Amino acid sequence: MTVTQLSAQELFRAAYDNRYTWDKDFPGYSADITFKDDDKVITGQVIVNAELKAEVLGVDDESAKKAIHGQAWEIAIHRVRRTFEETHGANTFRYGATDENGAVEILMGGKAEGDRYKVQNNVVTLVHRHIHGVVVTINTFGVHDTGEGYLSHTYDSVYHEPKTGEQRGGVSNFVDEYEKVGNYFILNRREIRTETAGKIAVQEFAFSNIKLLTPAA
Fold first, then answer.
1. Residues whose CB is less than 8 angstroms from the CB of residue 130 and which lie 6 or more positions away in sequence, other chains included
2. In 3D, which of 63, 44, 52, 5 has the Cα closest to residue 24?
3. What is the DSSP letter of 214?
4. Largest Cα–Cα distance in the chain?
5. Which residues are CB-contacts of 97 (< 8 A; sequence separation ≥ 6)?
6. Distance (Å, rounded) from C-alpha 67 to C-alpha 73?
7. Cα–Cα distance for residue pair 133/150, rounded to 1 Å
8. Is the pLDDT of residue 7 over 90?
9. Residue 6: predicted pLDDT
10. Which residues make beta-bridge pairs with 118?
11. How far, in whole angstroms, is CA 67 from its chain's centroid?
C-alpha cells in the first residue's frame, strides 16, 4: 500500500478552506454593543452592512468609538470568503519543522516570503505574517467547530519590528464567543487581555440583540 504524502500547499489549502466564512448572500447585521474598557462601560449600536462596512452609532467617546469600529471591522474582514487562489496564488509553500504537539510548519515563498504558518488537525494554529510594516504572530489554542468550518475561540497576538525583531506593545490574549443568527455565526463576545510591563488591561466587547439586515430588493 502506497501512502501519498500531501504537499505543503495541499495541507495548507485544506486548513484554509476549513475556516468558517460568510457566503455572498450575507445580508449584514445590527447589534447592541456594550464595551467595557477596564472600569469604563460604554453602550451603543453597531451595523455591519452586506458590503461588510462597519458603522458605530450612539457612542460619543472618540477613543471608544474607534475601538468598537476596529473590532467590528476585524470581525467582518475575517469572515470574507476569498478563494485560496485569490489569497495565496502568488505564494509557494514548503514544509518546515513539526513541533512537539504535532503541528506542521508551512514556510512561504514568493510574494509572502518570510511568512510562516502551522497546521494541525486541519486548523491553522500559527500565523506569522509581515503586514503593514510590522510582523504579527498569532497562536490559536482552541476553536469552535461550527459544522461549516472552524472559528478561533482562544488565541494570542503579538507584534514585532520586522528589522530588529523588537516587540511592539504587549501580548494580547483573546476569547471569542459566537451565536448562530439565521444561517450565520456572528461574534457576540470578545475579551482581550493585554499585558504590558507587568500590567494587564482588559477590554470586553459584548454584542447583543444581533439581527440580520433585510437584503435590499
1. 112, 114, 115, 162
2. 52
3. P
4. 67
5. 105
6. 10
7. 29
8. yes
9. 82
10. 105, 126
11. 16
Helix, strand, coil percent values for the chain (each to nearest 5): 15, 55, 30
Q: Which amino acid is at 28?
A: G
Asked if residues 205 and 68 have their Cβ atoms less than 8 Å apart, the reply is yes
pLDDT in tens, 132-148: 889 999 999 999 999 99
Cα R_g (the chain), whole angstroms: 19
Distance from C-alpha of 97 to C-alpha of 107, rounded to nearest angstrom: 9
Predicted confidence (pLDDT) per residue in 177-211, tens digit: 999 999 999 999 999 999 988 899 999 999 999 99
Q: What is the pLDDT of residue 217?
A: 53
CB atoms within 10 A of CB 14: 13
Q: In sequence order, which residues have a C-beta less than 8 Å from that of residue 136 and are 6 or more positions away?
A: 127, 128, 129, 157, 158, 159
Q: Which uninterrupted H or E stretch holds 62? A: helix 62-77
- Is the Cα dihedral 119, 122, 125, 128 positive or negative? positive
CA 166/CA 57 separation, integer angstroms: 37
Overall size of the chain counted in residues: 217
